[in-house]
Amino acid sequence: MTRTVPVRVAAAVGGAALLVAATGCGASAGDDKHPDHRSFALHGRTLVVDSDDSALEIVASPSAKAGSVEVTRWFQASVVAGKDPRVTWAMKGDRLVLRLTCSGFVADCAVRHRIEVPRGVSVQVRDGDGSVRARGFRDTLGIRTADGSVHVTESTGPLEVHTGDGSVRAEVASARVRISSGDGSVRLRLGVVPDLVDTRSGDGSVTVALPRAAYRVTAQSRDGAVDVSVPRDPASPHVVGARTRDGKVTVRTAN
Length: 255
Known about the structure:
- Residues 1-29 form the signal peptide.
- Keywords: Lipoprotein, Signal.
- By secondary structure, the chain is mostly beta strands.
- Helices cover 4% and strands 52% of the residues.
- The N and C termini lie far apart (48 Å).
- The chain has an eleven-stranded mixed sheet with strand order 1-6-7-3-9-11-13-15-17-21-19, with no helix packed on it.
- It contains one helix and 22 strands.
- The longest helix has 10 residues, at 13-22.
């Protein structure tokens, strides 16, 4: 299914400038009062979300129907002297493909998807440009975005997150967590004693809050303070890494 928005044409460059001034706040997908909804069949226990330019909310729900993925889409756009902007969605095998086309002399488009999956499904997310929020996962969750923040909550399965440019927050109860950001802060709060934590940032602070236990900790910053206040044991089976090139590193006991 494809959804398009008609182009708004300016008579001259001055008209385009006026349009930019009038819409300077930018398009917001939340302004779409009539979102689209569609159900996609899922035949396996793995889903790949392949998005080029969308904010994503992904929820693993106990009430979701087995063998089905429910998607809601909000879309707003304004384009001057270009092609009609459009959004498409399609299921190709186990891959949900979400695409946005938005170009013109002045182009301002915003799209957001809410994706609901049943419990028992492992999810891998690939997003080119957009924030990602995820919650409710008991199975493996992997998130990779080139440019956007990530926030994960209420999850207990293995977690792996990478963003090229954006902050990462996670409040989870996972035994194995890997988080990295090329440019942004990392904040992890764990509700269970983990087996493995690996957190990294190229440019940003790293904060890890852990349940009370003894940990084998590696904490490093090339340009910033390092504060480790959890009990340390070099022989502990609970391994925690927190590293950044530029910023403060904190490993502490969760309050």
